[in-house]
Amino acid sequence: MARSLKKGPFVDDHLLKKIEQMNAANDRKVVKTWSRRSTIIPEMVGHTLAVYNGRKFVPVYITENMVGHKLGEFSPTRHFKGHSSKVEKVAKVAAAAAPGAAPAPAPATGGGAKA
User: Fold this and answer.
1) What is the largest CA-CA distance in the chain?
2) CA spacing 20 to 30 A to 55: which of 13, 71, 77, 109?
3) How far is CA 114 from the centre of its chain?
4) Residues 14, 96: Cα–Cα separation, whole Å
5) Strands across the sheet containing 48-52
6) For residue 33, how many other CB atoms are within 10 A of its CB?
């Protein structure tokens, strides 16, 4: 559910103060933050925020297209390595077999209609 328009976007106070101070001083240093829940506002455009993902700080350069999104969306917490395929499993079994033995046969696909 979206936040009420009369309340405005949520930004943690400590982060907003840092951004406003940097804008007033025309400074562009990297700011570390744990506030993944904060919404990106137009005042943040052009800054680099190091957002904590639970393990390390991921540098996020804020652009105009990011306004309205949350900081946590640009700092992934999980790394998907992909699913293994049947071909890789068969190759591992064949490699584990004795060096002089014949390669293992491919598994049946199953699910086919009976003749």
Assistant:
1) 79
2) 13
3) 46
4) 57
5) 31-33, 48-52, 57-61
6) 20
Report residue 105 as tokens.
């046969």
- At 65 the pLDDT is 97
Structure tokens at 115: 């003749």
- Which residues are bridge partners to 50 per DSSP? 32, 59
Distance CA 51, CA 55 (A): 10
Given a cut of 80, whether residue 97 has pLDDT beyond it is no
Unique residue bearing structure tokens 């390595």: 81
Query: Which residue reads 């405005």 in tokens?
Result: 8
| 3-state class (DSSP) for residue 14 | helix
Cα angle value 98/101/106 (rounded, 5°) = 100
**What's the mean pLDDT in 88-115?**
67
Query: What would the two tokens of residue 112 be?
Result: 């086919």
Residue 46 pLDDT > 60? yes
Mean pLDDT for 22-50 is: 96
Distance from the Cα of residue 10 to its chain's centroid:
21
Distance of CA 55 to the CA centre of its chain: 12
